[in-house]
Amino acid sequence: MTVPLHYILHISRVKKMAIAIIGGGISGLTLAWGLQRAGIDYDLFEASPRPGGTICSEQHGGYLLEVGPNSLQLSDELAVLFQELGLTDKVEDAAAVSQNRYVLRAGAYQPLPGTPPGLLTSKFFSLKGRYNIVRELFRKPEPVNELETLGGFFTRRFGSEVVEYALNPFISGIYAGDPAQLLLHKTFPQLAALEQRHGSVLRGLMKTKSSAGRRRIVSLAGGLQTLPNTLAAKLRRAHFGQAATRLHRHDDDGRWELDTTAGPAPRLYQHVVLALPTHAAAKLLTEQFPAEAAALAAVYYPPMTAVYTAYQRTDVGHPLNGFGALHPKAEQPYAAGSIWTSSLFSGRAPAGQVLFTTFVGGTQYEPQALEPADQQQAAVHAELSRFYGLKADAAPVWQHRHFWPRAIPQFDARILPAHAAADHLQTLGLHATANWRAGVGVPDCVRHARQLAATLAAAR
Ligand SMILES: Cc1cc2nc3c(=O)[nH]c(=O)nc-3n(C[C@H](O)[C@H](O)[C@H](O)COP(=O)(O)OP(=O)(O)OC[C@H]3O[C@@H](n4cnc5c(N)ncnc54)[C@H](O)[C@@H]3O)c2cc1C
Description:
This protein is α/β, with parallel strands linked by helices. The chain has 19 helices and 20 strands. The protein folds into three domains: 5-55 and 224-299 and 415-458, FAD/NAD(P)-binding domain (3-Layer(bba) Sandwich), CATH 3.50.50.60; 125-208, protoporphyrinogen ix oxidase, domain 3, CATH 1.10.3110; 301-404, Polyamine Oxidase, Chain A, domain 2 (Alpha-Beta Complex).
């Protein structure tokens, strides 16, 4: 009996154990690096010719822009990754002033206290607000509620002033989100744990913070793009400019078949990892897993625009001695806030100039995110003129913007079915590592991807 050639080819492909990674943002790249170091066969497919996904640095003349993340908190996992990649010498610490954070209150920027005792000694909060903060030490913990929002939790523990003037701007700065919608257990589960363990969040924070210390805020020489570029250069089986177009699980042996824009993937895979935004992952799942695809597609990513504005230093009255300033919604601002980019790292703007990165959009400022570029840039300049003591006739030396139609996944109630779908797919060898699974910060993505690499290596 002659065996058909296609059958022999099929068997030989099946026998080769390999993992496909779809997506070459920081999550997919870190996973691939972990698998390569563990000696596991993989193929990574990234739609763009450029590695890094959301991490993207661009040089425009004398301006070095971060289109996505501006800086990273140096977690232990990130420090180890830098070491493995030989990047430790390229790490640049943010200037010491980066510890200062400002929040708009009554039309002017005021320093936000960074420690629990500072909350009480500074005049940032009213007397009533400070009284409510002290009362938190004596409030009783409430039973765990997985559906409690961040806004609900903070209102119940600290009162509405803390929510309006500290939580609200902070959440719009990190998540581009709205605390009234984001779930405590999916964003800051450690706060819920502090309430349960210590009775008071503040008491718990004071105990844990005193030993932990503050994390370094860092970038890399050449901008954050240096990280994905270095990873990509070291990966032996990364295929850039190849988007996954179809994913199919074989009923007989549970292996996965993958088509890409460059044709069928080179082999069948025992495991596939989605290192993709939920909407991109959903497209690959619709054919075979429509319910899971619908759950992933429902996750909300608000639009956001980053507007870059440079001025002559002598035109700006404000000392810009901090990381930046955030805007509470209660102040009815145009933008969510600005990072004082040229105060943080050197080489971001030509000598004698200052550079602001202003965030327009997110869940609470969606209409502004969608405005035309010229309108948006004019509105940002008008707001900067108002709050930074600009000279009356000062105009931007340079402006630029980048629009993110879907910026950051929201950990609101819609994330729950998506996580349940991902849990189910994992039992079939289809995993997910990406910010909607790991947490939105780059250090979260790195931690999650490294853990998944270790899990897959152990299961080999
Ligand atoms: C404006 C902005 C500012 C931010 N600031 C910070 C910050 O200061 N610090 C911080 O820590 N974090 C910040 N973040 C968050 C952080 O950058 C992201 O959460 C993180 O980079 C996401 O990485 P990822 O690999 O999970 O996903 P992504 O970066 O989205 O990567 C997914 C990749 O999948 C690819 N892809 C999509 N479809 C396909 C397909 N069919 N086939 C193959 N490939 C595909 C995409 O091209 C992309 O490269 C910011 C995010 C934004 C948007």
